[in-house]
Amino acid sequence: MLYNYTITPKAVGQITKFYCNVALKYRHVYSIEDMERNIRQAVFSAYLIERGLARRVPTISRWKNMHMAHANKWYYAYSIEDNTIIIHDACHAQNMHE
Known about the structure:
Blueprint: E1 4-7, H1 9-25, H2 32-45, E2 67-71, E3 74-81, E4 84-92
Parallel strand pairs: 1-4
Antiparallel strand pairs: 2-3, 3-4
């Protein structure tokens, strides 16, 4: 099946916030180019949902009633409405806790 994808501002914001914090903490070894590349990779990975990433049961309660997918170090919470996948939230692996 061919899906349309919608990534919410919250999901993109979580990814951007994470890598901005990395850039601030490691400013001498982590460049703006690294940050932009990592953000781009994390966002593009979301487009693999239901095409290469396995559907999982969410492991954190705030994602209850949604699906979860995992790509590299990122977890995505999403729902499917008709032929549209809506990515509601994203969380880096080291922050996957209640």
